[in-house]
Amino acid sequence: GTASEDMRFASAVAEFALLLRGSEHRGQASFDNVLALARGARGEDDQGHRGEFIDLVEAAKTLRSQ
C-alpha cells in the first residue's frame, strides 16, 4: 500500500531538515522533492500548518538560489 499522508508529509519535513543542515546524509534530497512530497500529502490542512510549511520551503529555495 501507499504511505499515509501524515507519513509522507513527515518525510518532506525530515528531508527539508537535512537540506537546511547541509547534512552529509541528504543524498538526492532537493527543495523540489520536498515541495512535491509536501504538496502531495497536504490533505485537509484545516489549520493551515502544512500550507505554511510549503510557503517556508518555497522561501528557502528562493534564498538558496540567490
Q: What does this molecule look like?
A:
- With 66 residues, the chain is an all-alpha fold.
- It is 65% helix and 0% strand.
- It contains 3 helices and no strands.
- The protein has helices at 5-21, 31-40, 49-64.
- α2 runs antiparallel to α3.
- The longest helix is centred in the N-terminal third of the chain and has 17 residues, at 5-21.
- The radius of gyration is 12 Å and the shape is globular.
Question: Features of this protein?
Answer:
66 residues, 65% helix
Write the layout of secondary structure elements.
Layout: H1 5-21, H2 31-40, H3 49-64
Helix pairs in contact: 1-2, 2-3
Global Rg: 12 Å
Series of secondary-structure elements, N-terminal to C-terminal: HHH
* Mean pLDDT, all residues: 95
Q: What's the overall geometry?
A: globular
Low-confidence stretches: none
Counted beta strands: 0
Distance between the termini: 40 Å
Integer tally of domains: 1
Structural class: mainly alpha
As a percent range, the share of helical residues equals 55-70%
Largest sheet: none
Strand content: under 5%
